[in-house]
Structures are given as C-alpha cells and as structure tokens.
Amino acid sequence: MRVFIAGVDGYLGWSLAQHLARRGHTIGGADALLRRVWVDEMGSVSAIPIVPLDERLAAFSEHFDQQLQFFALDVLDHSALRTALAEFQPDTVVHLAECPSAPYSMIDFHHADFVQRNNVSGTLSLLFAMRDQCPEAHLVKLGTMGEYGTPNLDIPEGFFEVEYRGRRERLPFPRQAGSWYHWSKVFDSHSVAFACQLWGLRATDVMQGVVYGTWCNPDTRLNTRLDFDEAFGTALNRFCCQAVISQPLMPYGQGTQKRGFLSLSDSMQCLGLAIDNPPAAGEYRVFNQLREVLSINELALIVRAAGERCGLTPEIRHQDNPRLEDEAHHYCPDSNHLRALGFRPSLPIDEVVRNMIGDLLPYRDRIASYGQRLAPTVRWRASRTVCTESPHI
User: What family is reported (predicted)?
Assistant: First the structure.
C-alpha cells in the first residue's frame, strides 16, 4: 500500500513511517519542519536528539530498502500539496500535520489565531486536494479525545443513537473542548465528516488519547523526538524527564483529572490497523484510540516507582492548575472498534516507563539545561495579556 504521511517529521509521523515501512508499505510524506520551530520558540529542545531531515531520510533508505519520497511543503500551500498527491498517488493519507498543543494555543491571540488557521485551513486544503487528486484514497485524520471534554456520561466512539418520533437518529456526540487547539480539532472533525458526505471520501477520525514513550534505535538517526517543555511535552513524557533530572514531578491541581493513555508503540499498532482496514466510500468513522484510563496522580506514582527502580528518587509536588478543567469528573470512553480489528496492547505502562527512563538517562545533562521549561507559565484564565509578536513560523 502507498501511504502518504502529512507531518512525517514529527513525534508520531517519523515513528509511523518506520512502522509501516517494516510492514512492507511504500512511504511518502510531507513536512514544513514546524514542530522543530515551535519547540525552539518555547526555548526548548527534544530530550532525545534528532538529526537534520536529510540525515533521517538517508538512514531510512539504508534500513528499509526504499526511499521515503519526501515533499518539503506546508499543507496550507494548496498548490504544492495537490502536486505532491498527484505525483505520489497514495492509497492512504495520514494527516498528522497540525499544531498539537493546547498550551501553545492559549498563549495569546496570535498563537490562538495561528493554531486555528494552521489546523482548520490545513485540513480543508488536504480535503480539497484529496478530492481532486486521489478521491479513492482513505484519509486517516488524527483527532484527540480532548474534543469530547469530560462530560458526565460515557463517551461513545464519535456518535450516539437516539429515538425520536419513532425514528432512530445517529448524532455526533457533543464536543466540550477545553482549549483553542481542541476547538480547532472539533472543527476538523466536522469538516472531514462533511467531505465524506459531500464528495464520497472515506475517512477514519482517530480520537487519540495521550501518547507517551520513546522510539530509539541502534542507528540514532532513526530516533524520534521526545518533547518535555510545557507546550509540547505530554504529561507522562514530562514526568519522566523531571525524574531523570531530579526535578519534582508536577501534577496540576489535585491531580485527579482522568484521561485515556497509550504508548507510542501501541499508537503505531492502532494507526496501522486503521490503515489496513479502510472504510467504504462515503463513510466517516470514529475510533477512540486509547489503552487505559488513568488519573494524573496515578501517572506520577507510576513514574516515581519506575524512577526508584532505576536508582532515582523522584518526589511529587503539586502545582496550581494553569488550565480551565474539571479536576473531579466522570470519564468512561468506549474504545471497542480498534480492539475488534485486532488491537492488543503491548507492554504494561510501568514497563514502558522504565524503558523510557533508561532511554532518557544518557541525555540527563541535555534535559537539565532546559529544565526551566518544564514548569507551567501559560495560564488559561490569565488577566489581560499584551503581546505584539506572532508565532515564529
């Protein structure tokens, strides 16, 4: 199968390219390298060093017996994107080319506006390009469980059915996003669903939980990034980096917030299953992609225990919550579709965390030199903020 990955240089994209190539797929991809720019803007780096793109592509060719056909473009460049899809002619398009940070979108007007335009307009650009250049291809669009919020009822996979006046209706589950980033993803989901209805495209919207884990290789050119700054580092990845540099683990607020989590390797397995099992033409389907539901306090305890087994002595120190979110809430999402396709979780979370800490320890000094970027500074309820600078893009 020919798979085109938009956002191939990112945390998920670079791992996915290798995962799919090992399974015999032909890989193409596009990236504008903005994730590198955004993290630099936050004053941080990837905890695990990553090499320049040309070195990555060379390593890919050496290890996977194929060249990754790379297109240096931003999905907002509609003409360039159309040309790339026409040349590559994918069977599947995986859309990972969005800004994935809630805190980044909450910095100020300029960042909120950038994230909305980048994500919403970028998705529209991709949908129209697929309609015109590869209308039979399957779109796998990365959504987020954060679109749903934390409603006081169980969360189905995208839709629920109601009966009214003798008719059963299939309605989108209500969205209660908690950041400008998450609202951009809500709009994306509606755009993709409408494109399937309008043009007969086929799409899988993957509502992914929080991903954690490293992707390290004997050839370090194949390593994927792992961010730990307040904007682009996910909670568990940040906790592991804090443990490695003897900085207290920092759950926000009471730490009772619950979310769905899965490892990076399990994310790759799930995305591979979605790619291998496309929907029918005109079908828009939703997969909730997670392994388990845990509280932030449970994450911190897991990291502390793993750190102690690695000779570290992490402590837990709660921080005032900078976000606008319920800290005590019901959270029970359904995630049966991927399991029905064959998803089988791999290593337990405590083993993954121990492996992560082992991968991160050689870079302790590197992480420590940027340790000040771990603490939260972006406040959801901040008083009036004056900012005259746009995001660095």
Answer: Belongs to the NAD(P)-dependent epimerase/dehydratase family.
What is the Cα–Cα distance from 200 to 117, expressed in whole angstroms? 25
| Side chain identity, residue 40 | D
Q: How far apart are CA 1 and CA 230, in angstroms?
A: 37
Contact call for residues 303 and 353 (beta carbons, < 8 A)? yes
Mean pLDDT, residues 73-95 taken together: 98
Q: Is the pLDDT of residue 30 over 90?
A: yes
Task: Find out whether 25 and 272 touch, Cβ atoms under 8 Å.
Answer: no
What's the pLDDT at 169? 87
Cα distance between residue 102 and residue 112, in whole Å = 9
Does pTM surpass 0.85?
Answer: yes
CA 148 to chain centre: 15
Helix, strand or coil for residue 222? helix
For residues 212 and 214, give the distance between their C-alpha atoms in angstroms, rounded to a whole number. Answer: 7
Residues 150-165: tens digit of each pLDDT: 999 999 999 988 888 8
Domain boundaries, the chain: 2-373
| DSSP states along 278-289 | ---TT-EEEEEE
- HEC string of 155-176? ECCCEEEEEECCEEEEEECCCC
**Residues classed as catalytic:** 144, 181, 185
